[in-house]
Design brief:
Layout (H helix, E strand, L loop, with lengths): L13 E7 L1 H5 L3 H15 L4 E8 L7 H4 L2 H10 L8 E4 L2 H4 L4 H13 L3 E4 L4 E3 L8 H11 L4 H18 L12 E4 L2 E4 L1 H15 L4 H10 L14 H9 L14 H6 L13 H18 L15 E3 L6 E6 L10 E6 H4 L9 E3 H9 L8 H5 L1 H36 L5 H37 L1 H9 L9 H17 E7 L3 E6 L4 E5 L2 E10 L4 E11 L7 H4 L12
The structure holds zinc ion.
Length: 569
């Protein structure tokens, strides 16, 4: 700043002003974004940033930043003419400078302009100086009007909101806060392709039944850098935010700070470039509801208990707790997994001390004994296997159609004798016939592979070897986790509740009214139906299957280990 002067704008300096409140820090990246935007803005005006001033954690509310902070120092220097006239102070948006009440905000802006400092606002790509600052008046007067209407705290946000709304109406990005998968460039939102990919993956995985924790782990395992610089880890709570952020469908929802303001705020559709379809977004919101109400199993790595939220104790009505005692050296054999009444277990009054062998219950579902649930379908294996070859089959079919059409055309030309060179025509026809033959063969092969894949999926043994059998599988495998979640969701849609009564009697009550009863190692299907002739409800009982702790395919694998006892008291 020493060798200054002569012509105003030649020696003009550019200062980037960065302010971060703790709020924006939570989403991280705010600092980098503001600096980048300022650099770019400066470059566009033929300037380079000479100095970056930052107030981090300083609130612009009540002008703390313009009094004590870096902004205050800057103002003093500008007033004392230490900073060259015509220099530019570059900020992301006006609310970075001040969130104070309108009159003070106006005063601050006027002070800056009076010191002949220009203000560059990157988010709306605009330079304010002594000539153009008047354009700001309508916005500020609108701020003032909004301010007089409600109490102080909400006033600020509302004022802010009104400003934003006015600018939004002009189709300009009005806020510094844009989702982390895009950035503001030249006053426009630009998607960051690799981040958009990640958002899409997060939605895809969640839609496949993979939990937030597992998604976060998968991203970490793949070494995908987290967007949050301060805490560079993928956290389930951030995955949650992404899954519920309406910005993915293009909506802009201003930050909510107080309850009163929340009511006043409305979302602006078609504000951001959308990256997720509204259908998928809405479906995800529905799924999250199911999960939030506590049916998705524990937050841990495994989805161990398919019966969570379904099983209850008939004595006290309490929930059944899942106990994994497969490796409990302190406990006498047999080691197994159990459902136990929480109250009974902790001696809190319930007299139901039965330990229900969990594998018996789960195998009843997984073995497909329960007619109402198509287990292969529920696990989503059909889809997985078929999708792979479907694309190829479709493509080959289209090519074959084309070859057929070509042949038909050529034949009709032959009939018309429209072509002079018959040899040329013959060659073309032969060529098309060859192509068609090859396409037919390839199509048959692709269909064969698709059918095989489907068959493999339907084959129960292979299906279990793929990892659905609950014991000895690596539950960290996301695919298995996803399958178990799907099965569990299917169960929840069909099963009303699972009653655990004393003496190890278990009843699975379907929503249809049918009940499956477990007694003495045997499942019985109990149905009630109306006999029309005698006009009475008749209860029919039929054998449904044996209770097993191990599925047939598992015997070979584990023949040397000890047999588990079926039921244990
Ligand atoms: Zn109980």
């Amino acid at each position: 700043m020493k060798d200054n002067v002569e012509k105003k704008h030649v020696s003009a300096k550019a200062f980037a002003y960065i302010r971060l409140s703790s709020q924006s820090q939570a989403w991280g990246d705010g600092e980098r974004r503001q600096v980048e935007a300022a650099k770019e803005f400066a470059a566009r005006h033929g300037l380079t940033i000479d100095e970056t001033l930052s107030d981090i954690g300083v609130s612009a509310y009540r002008s703390k930043n313009s009094k004590g902070g870096a902004l205050g120092t800057f103002l003093d220097l500008a007033r004392d003419n230490v900073i060259e006239k015509g220099s530019m102070l570059i900020v992301e948006s006006i609310d970075r400078l001040t969130r104070d009440e309108p009159s003070s905000a106006l005063q601050l802006l006027l002070d800056i302009i009076k010191a002949e400092i220009r203000i560059g606002i990157t988010s709306i790509n605009m330079v304010m100086d002594s000539l153009t600052y008047v354009a700001l008046f309508p916005i500020i007067s609108e701020m003032a009007r909004a301010n007089s209407e409600s109490e102080h705290k909400s006033k600020r946000s509302l004022a802010n909101w009104v400003t934003k709304r006015l600018l939004a109406a002009q189709g300009t990005p009005v806020t510094s806060q844009c989702p982390l998968w895009m950035e503001v460039k030249n006053g426009e939102f630009c998607l960051i392709p690799e981040r958009v990919e990640i958002v899409k993956r997060i939605y895809g995985m969640y839609s496949d039944g993979i939990g937030r924790g597992a998604i976060a782990r998968a991203l970490m395992n793949e070494g995908i850098p987290a967007w949050n610089k301060r805490r560079p880890v993928w956290h389930p709570s951030y995955i949650f935010k992404v899954l519920h952020n309406r910005a993915v469908v293009g909506d802009y929802e201003p930050e909510t700070k107080t309850k009163e303001v929340h009511v006043a705020q409305k979302r602006i559709p078609d504000y951001y470039p959308p990256i997720i379809s509204p259908e998928l977004f809405n479906r995800i919101q529905g799924m999250s509801h199911v999960r939030r109400t506590g049916h998705s199993g524990r937050k841990g790595k495994k989805f161990a208990n398919l019966f969570q939220g379904l099983a209850q104790c008939t004595v006290c009505g309490g929930t059944m707790r899942f106990l994994n005692r497969t490796h409990d050296k302190k406990r006498e054999k047999p080691w197994a997994m159990y459902l136990v009444c929480s109250s009974g277990l902790e001696k809190l009054g319930c007299q139901n001390y039965s330990w229900y062998n969990y594998r018996v219950l789960e195998n009843f579902i997984l073995a497909g004994t329960l007619k109402e649930i198509d287990i292969i379908e529920a696990a989503g294996l059909h889809r997985e296997a078929e999708l792979e070859n479907m694309d190829l089959v479709e493509k080959l079919k289209a090519e074959l159609d084309k070859a057929d059409a070509n042949i038909a055309n050529l034949v009709s030309l032959l009939d018309d004798k429209a072509l002079e060179d018959m040899n040329e025509l013959k060659r073309a026809l032969l060529e098309e016939h060859r192509k068609r033959k090859s396409l037919r063969e390839r199509l048959a092969a692709a269909r064969g592979v698709a059918a095989e894949a489907r068959q493999a999926a339907e084959n129960t043994d292979l299906f279990r070897q793929a990892g659905v059998a609950p014991e000895g599988i690596d539950m960290s495998d996301d695919a298995v986790y996803a399958r178990r979640v799907r099965i569990s969701m299917q169960m929840r849609s069909m099963i009303d509740r699972v009653d655990c009564a004393p003496k190890h009697c278990v009843s699975i009550r379907m929503k249809s009214g049918t009940v499956y009863e477990l007694e003495d190692g045997q499942w019985t299907r109990v149905e009630q139906r109306l006999a029309p002739v005698i006009n009475k409800v008749i209860t029919s009982r039929s054998f449904a299957g044996l209770a097993v702790t191990r599925l047939p395919c598992e015997y070979e694998k584990a023949s040397d280990t000890e047999e588990e006892q079926l039921v244990i008291v």
